User: What shape does this take?
Amino acid sequence: MTSEVEESFKKIIEKRNPPKAEPMVNGKSGFLYFYKDGSICYSLQCEHYFKHIIQKYNNTYKVQMPVITLHICRHTYCSNMAKSGINPKALQYLMGHSDISATLNTYTHVNLEDAREEVARLRIVQLRFYNLKWQGVKTWNLHHMLYLLRYNICHNTSIYARKQFFTGAYKARNIKKHKEMRGYVTMIKILFICHGNICRSTMSQFVFQDMVNKRGLSDHFHIDSAATSREEIGNPPHYGTVRKLKEVGIPVLSHRARQMTKADYQEYDYLIGMDSANIRNMNRILGGDPEAKVQKLLDFTERKGDIADPWYTGNFDLTYRDVSEGCEGLLHFLEEREEELKKW
Assistant: This one.
């Protein structure tokens, strides 16, 4: 890391309120951010802080800030480092990827404009070698190599652009639609949905997030939840959900209920409802499901059916049993169907 980043981390550690007992995860300790109860602040929780900061800024100032998350910062860092000319293997090490295809195909965003800039840079290098040549320096072989490189890039622009189009994050995520993308490492985006987004969908979000964290797959999933109604917008998870998850040792993340939108269909790869009424309302909001992204959670188990709403039944134990079984089935489905998961 740079000296500036190191200095920032040291200041954070100096100013933080040290926990009563330093937590350890997989032999690692010294975490930077904690909640008041001493639990570790995970990345998804930090993203909600980012959203709050951006919303507060945009409500105050006319010049609006774009959407910024920790994951966007991670992608931006990787792309900028790649464009700077860093050794790809060094960048893979810095990003912590086990497979370099994750570094180059998912996290590095390069487009046709970047290719043109590279060609322009090569032309400048060529001119410098021309000057050296006129000064009597024998550089024909290197000059010829640069010429061939420029020729290949310029005359294969359509192929290059097409490759970048298919390796863009928004295309790479849709594995089912784009079969040619199989073999690339991609991020899978899942949105759990129920009626109010305070009981079943939030429980599913937290349970599934805990499962992928424990399997070391957190970098390859984006998991969120939403409602079909507007009844609970802005409210935190139901106390029954919080109580049950704490009872079984699953972290409860910071979340506020929101209603799903039609735009979520393009943003997410899987939209998972809890019961038949959810599915009907989801299709009404989305205007259809042409890519078969809408599913019920228990459809990924042997016993298909609906997950009862504990807001009415009060039985959060039964809801947790169904949600856990459904999340296990969903993850097993992804491990079998998505070939890129096997390469992680």
User: Anything to note?
Assistant: Residues 155-185, 340-344 have pLDDT under 50 and may be disordered. Strands lie at 188-194, 221-227, 270-273, 294-296. The CA atoms of residues 135 and 338 lie 58 Å apart. Residues 112-134 form the longest helix (23 residues).
